[in-house]
Design a protein that fits this description.
Pdz3 Domain; seven-stranded antiparallel beta sheet; 4 domains
């Protein structure tokens, strides 16, 4: 059955021009949306090791007097129900490491919940309420249509005082260099008051749509200074779709290239009218970028017609398009612009990671190591071109942890033998030695250490 297309008139945003308009209330909007914003209570058990643990002599005399103890720690945040079945979005740092998570609705009801998917680098988590719906939901808006100056409301549970609504405007878009350890920074900035406890709460527009998940603030004293940041709803939408699709892990597009910001000097040298875009610094052989025709020295200016401000913006645009799709890139090559198609693929795992836990009497005991592939390098945030064997995690209190080894360290050689695979490394460690000469690479620098 065919339907005729009907042109829709998009209402224009207007500025209040009279005292009557200035006295308008947000109350109807709050009543419409606040029921979908929840409190998230997370509790975890923390085990404290005895100061004598690991020392056989001291453990024999004092271990029973000072055994390992455990205590419970709780954290409080907010969340947003985005599906009627009780699917909740919050920040990963709100529930990270939690053994027990409860969700409290605005009407006072409390439910246990489970983690469907979480991602530390995006600082997002999806929870599922253990209860019968339908639950009130907050529809996801298009964060790409948000403009600086738009009115917004922030809803959450600051300092645990109860659900609180604050108002403000969108202060800036595409903010980067906001948080550490994330894949990329691409935030909506707002002056709506956001405080501890608001994390995971809603930033909504004047039509009652979710445009962001409140995540971070700039503050020296811990309170709101009118500089808050929210993860855009378009990224939240892709993350929720991935969680609902199963798999447990969020798949990021693998580009196979490295990028740097375009400075004013670089823009002038490359014939760009102003500094913008992502400068290609290297391309992995055989990767999607090389197949698309991207070359070092070129600048990516736009993705699917949307301007790219910096490398973080490029990562955001490609991530929100999603794995398995194709992105159209607008590229500048010494002032000459052209377009190309980039296939968005998941990073390959070649060679296989072959993760192994190193044991025995060696400085590396307690370290889990794996062969580096584009996928493992992406997970560890290492350059994709690096190959070898890297530490992926360390057991708490293990010899490797106490001696200063760290995840992302690349084991280059042991006792003069180059390490080619995790199997080779395990074999050398099992053989033992009276003197260990270990060479690692950390953040591009070679470090040699000696242990007895």
């Amino acid at each position: 059955m065919k339907t005729a297309a009907v042109a829709q008139t998009v209402p224009q945003t207007t500025v209040p021009e009279s005292r009557a308009e200035m006295q308008l209330s947000f109350s109807p909007l709050v009543k419409q949306t606040s029921g979908a914003v929840v409190n998230v209570y997370a509790e975890k058990t923390v085990r404290q090791r005895s100061p004598f643990a690991g020392d056989p002599f001291l453990e024999q005399f004092f271990g029973q007097r000072m055994p390992n103890r455990s205590e419970k720690q709780s954290s409080l945040g907010s969340g947003v129900i985005v599906r009627e079945d009780g699917t909740v979005v919050t920040n990963n740092h709100v529930i990270d490491g939690a053994d027990d998570i409860k969700v409290a609705l605005a009407d006072g009801r409390e439910f246990a919940s489970t983690v469907v998917m979480k991602d530390e680098r995006l600082d997002l988590a999806v929870l599922k309420i253990k209860g019968n719906g339908p639950f009130k939901v907050l529809p996801l808006g298009d964060s790409d249509k948000v403009e600086v100056g738009d009115l917004v409301l922030a809803i959450g549970n600051p300092f645990g005082v109860g659900q609180t609504v604050t108002s403000g405007i969108v202060s800036a878009l595409a903010r980067n260099q906001v948080t550490e350890g994330s894949d990329f920074s691409f935030f909506i900035q707002t002056d709506a008051s956001i405080n501890p406890g608001n994390s995971g709460g809603a930033l909504i527009d004047m039509r009652g749509r979710l445009i962001g998940i409140n995540t971070a603030i700039f503050s020296r004293g811990g309170g709101s200074n009118g500089i808050g940041f929210a993860i855009p709803a378009n990224l939240v939408k892709v993350f929720v779709e991935s969680a609902m699709g199963g798999g447990g892990k969020f798949a990021r597009p693998y580009i196979g290239a490295s990028f740097e910001p375009v400075t004013a000097e670089v823009a002038e040298a490359l014939g760009l009218p102003r500094p913008r875009g992502a400068l290609v610094t290297s391309v992995v052989e055989g990767g999607p970028a090389e197949k698309a025709g991207l070359k070092p020295g070129e600048v990516v200016l736009a993705v699917n017609g949307v301007e790219v401000e910096h490398p973080d913006a490029l990562g955001y645009r490609l991530t929100t398009i999603g794995v398995g799709r194709t992105a159209q890139l607008q590229v500048s090559d010494n002032g000459r612009e052209r377009e190309m198609s980039l296939a968005l693929e998941q990073a390959p795992e070649v060679p296989k990671r072959d993760a192994r836990l190193l044991e025995g009497r060696s400085p590396l005991a307690g370290a889990t190591v794996a062969n580096l592939s584009p996928r493992v390098s992406e997970e560890l945030r290492l350059p994709g071109r690096i190959r070898g064997v890297a530490i992926t995690q360390l057991a708490d209190g293990s010899p490797a942890a106490r001696l200063g080894f760290a995840p992302r360290d690349i084991i280059v050689a042991i006792n003069g033998v180059d390490i080619q695979s995790s199997a080779d490394l395990e074999k050398i460690v099992r053989a033992g030695a009276s003197l260990w000469r270990i060479e690692i690479e950390r953040d591009g620098q070679r470090i040699r250490q000696f242990f007895r």
